Amino acid sequence: MRRFWNWVRDSDDERTLYLHGVISEETWWGDEVTPRLFKDELLAGSGNITVWINSPGGDVFAAAQIYNMLMDYTGKVTVKIDGLAASAASVIAMAGGDVYMSPVSMLMIHNPSTIAIGDSEEMLRAKALLDEVKESIINAYELKSGLSRTKLSHLMDAETWMNANKAIELGFADKVMFANGESPMDTEQGMIFSRAAAAVTNSLLGKIPKLKQKTGTPIESLDKRLSLISH
């Protein structure tokens, strides 16, 4: 199984975790496997860990499990965003006691998305599910940033992209890396635009034929967790 993380042991008391790529990229062959393997490796050592993130996001449920594991970890967790922490990856980033961002990195938050097939009642159920998933994501953002749920909801609606200084201003991050303790430089307002969510969605769409072929299950009868809920 190809994994999206890699551990490096710096010393007996320090480890580094690299989260690179789409979260739970292989989950369509067994969603429960990847988080379990991750937990086994996380708990195989002790001491403080540094988590480097460069990811466009992916499966919201796997991201939630990784977030919970890091939040519950007994050592100190420091998150460093060296490229992109978007969508579900931004949720994992919120598990850092300290969140550092490279001066050239970005953080993006938006609403969760899914694919649903069926009648109007099925569409309503899909909407209700997405609404609840959004509320659960806001919980993580609220704990880290201290922003109101209404403010966070509006930021997600707008698909908000933040450079390091904007993320610090809004409470999603704590410090710009390589700044040597100096105050962050003045910056323009964080950008807000709408196009990158399609990248993750299109990647997930490409897995549908493979999933159907492997399982022999009609797409219409797939479980909700396989209805491509992404964030």
Give an overview in words:
The chain is of the alpha/beta class. 38% of the residues lie in helices and 19% in strands. It has one domain: 2-enoyl-CoA Hydratase, Chain A, domain 1 (Alpha-Beta Complex). It contains 8 helices and 8 strands; from the N terminus they run E-E-H-E-H-E-H-E-E-H-H-E-H-E-H-H. Helix 1 (33-42) runs parallel beside helix 2. The chain is globular. The protein starts with a strand and ends in a 16-residue tail after the last helix. The model is unreliable at 182-197 and 217-227 (pLDDT under 50).
Secondary-structure-based class equals alpha/beta
**Biggest β-sheet: count, sense, barrel?**
8 strands, mixed
Share in β-strands:
15-25%
Cα distance spanning the termini: 22 Å
Radius of gyration: 18 Å
Overall pLDDT level = 82
CATH architecture: Alpha-Beta Complex
Q: Which geometry do the CA atoms define?
A: globular
- CATH-wise, what's the superfamily? 2-enoyl-CoA Hydratase, Chain A, domain 1
- The percentage helix is 25-40%
Short description:
With 231 residues, the protein is α/β, with parallel strands linked by helices.
Descriptive labels:
single chain; 231 residues; alpha/beta; 2-enoyl-CoA Hydratase, Chain A, domain 1; globular
Fold blueprint:
Blueprint: E1 5-9, E2 14-20, H1 33-42, E3 48-55, H2 60-72, E4 77-86, H3 88-93, E5 98-101, E6 106-109, H4 120-145, H5 149-157, E7 160-163, H6 164-170, E8 175-176, H7 197-205, H8 208-215
Parallel strand pairs: 2-3, 3-4, 4-5, 4-6, 5-8
Antiparallel strand pairs: 1-2, 6-7
Helix pairs in contact: 1-2
